[in-house]
Design goal:
about 5% helix, Deoxyuridine 5'-Triphosphate Nucleotidohydrolase, Chain A, mainly beta, single chain
Length: about 140
């Protein structure tokens, strides 16, 4: 378990919490009211800032219920929060549905998952090792 320091930067911010024991993500809540028209996107305020330990990141992800029932997603999913970032956690929400969607203060808008990460050490080479897949991608294995 990692320790995350959290600061409310808006009085009405709700501290994230797990809905159930064993959940991967904590819920993030809106601090403002918004109306998202179909095809529209906006930056939703959560009113919180966090301190993530080095070697970790947070990922902001859509909530499956909002996606299925209303077509609400996140433009840059998952949105990465780096360990050095200390600003407000925002959610870039988009309405992919066909009707206006109302986000109210205190509504769950996204979820946040914490991950351990490793820095990469790049080594430039002339050739890469061979694999059975090679450079096949973008559907090269078919869909059945």
């Amino acid at each position: 378990m990692i320790k995350i320091k959290i600061k409310k930067i808006k009085e009405n911010a709700i501290v994230p919490k797990y809905a159930h024991h064993g959940d991967a993500g904590v819920d993030l809540y809106s601090t403002e009211d918004y109306i998202l028209k179909p095809g529209e996107r906006t930056l939703v305020s959560t009113g919180i800032a966090i301190s993530i330990p080095p070697g970790h990141e947070a990922q902001v992800r859509p909530k499956s219920g909002l996606a299925l029932k209303h077509g609400i997603s996140i433009v840059n999913t998952p949105g990465t929060v780096d360990c050095e970032y200390r600003g407000e956690i925002g959610v870039i929400a988009i309405n992919l549905g066909q009707e206006d969607f109302k986000i109210e203060k205190g509504n769950k808008i996204a979820q946040m998952v914490f991950n351990k990460i490793e820095e990469a050490d790049f080594e430039e080479v002339e050739e890469l090792d061979d694999t059975t897949r090679g450079d096949g991608g973008f559907g090269s294995t078919g869909h059945k």
